[in-house]
User: Fold Phenylacetate--CoA ligase family protein from Streptomyces armeniacus.
Amino acid sequence: MEQWTWPPRYDETYRPPEGQTHWFPRRETMPAEQRDELIAARIREVMAYAWDNAPFYRRKWDEAGIHPSSVRTLADFEKVPVVRKEELRADQAANEPFGSYLCVPPDQVKHINGTSGTTGRPTAFGIAERDWRSVANAHARVMWAMGIRPSDTVLVASPLSLYWGSWGAYTGAERLGARVFPFGAGTPGQSARTVRWIRQMGVSVFYGTPSYALRLAEVAEDEGIDPASLGLRAMFFSGEPGASIPTIRARITGLFQAEVYDSGSMAEVAPWMHLGAAANEPGVLCWQDLVYTEVCDPAGHRRVPYGAEGTPVYTTLERTSQPMIRLLSNDVTRWEAPSAERGRTYPFLPRGIYGRLDDMFTVRGENVQPSAIDDIVMAAPGYGGEHRIVISRETAMDTLVVQVEYDPRHPEAALPDWAAHISDRLRTVLGVGARVVPVRQHTFDRTEFKARRVIDNRELLRRISAEPLPGSAR
Assistant:
């Protein structure tokens, strides 16, 4: 395969001819079974490298009775124990600052990204220059498949901070040869400036989260500007479900009249665009020669058959500084077998990553993904732009309430029927009843990054119930 080496080495001057569909035609279209044999050999190389250089992996595999030489097939690889995020955090706490899974001398780390640490200890991503270039080359490949070309101007509209998404999009567009505009997001009033700069600079490609794209469309309309007049040709997204969820996708394409591409997995396994669309349609391909993806049973972590739902487990095939080997994502997806009809012979996730096991909640015995509610609510005629999902337990039974903003042009007299219709749709799809409460437009704050719409009050009620009353003997 083109430039299939370990450690990875790329010709930084290479770029496909303008009319060529694939960045690496051989790697992207070869029979999947043949690629799998090469991937199994690469996995042994990566495992041997980690065994020699990362005490974290040697210790973990020793305890499981596994040696890299024993992994001869992808089926053998399923026996390798998964790595959990909490293990990485604990290892970094014990081995500051990058953990004992860092496989290069610390002075070779030239870039630092990481998690925010809002839900616990932040995780540091130590990235060697070789890995930075590998990510750039990988992302350029996927962006080329999206139809992005050197003649484009790419606006990076997510925060330029610790967040890997922004930098991954930036370095990929730069490697592809496009003009890159790292505008960022998050500053008050910046969305209005984003609209003006898009027009002024002739931006043709937008990168950000689906939530921010919808926010940007609202701001443009408030400024008296039709979002479709901004001239965006293509928009690619990561960071949250949406670009492959039918109603969210339809809203974005309807507002901007642009092609929409989904992408993204986890920052820990950058190049995170290894899950990336190659056509203007819902779903993403698993670019298996960049990061080997297994969709697994959440309990046993063995691959589920094509057509089934599971959680992705990722193995980086080009990372040398902090390789991830069978990292458990806790995301939720469904995969389909490779098909040459899609133009590339990779497995396919028709709905992308559409939820997380952590985010899924149970109401009266039914498992519910927030994205399923989003899909129904946003499709309602008269939807006002935002909603909140509130779960409570005031008595013995859980209650599910969905507060939905309505368009002010929607007749208020018709709101009870409107809410009842949405409620019926939710019951049919979710299998559980939900009370829909219409609220005025702009009741809820908008986001310039990732949307957080679920409010679960049950844990708060449980804590309050467990607290002793003042003066009690408990």
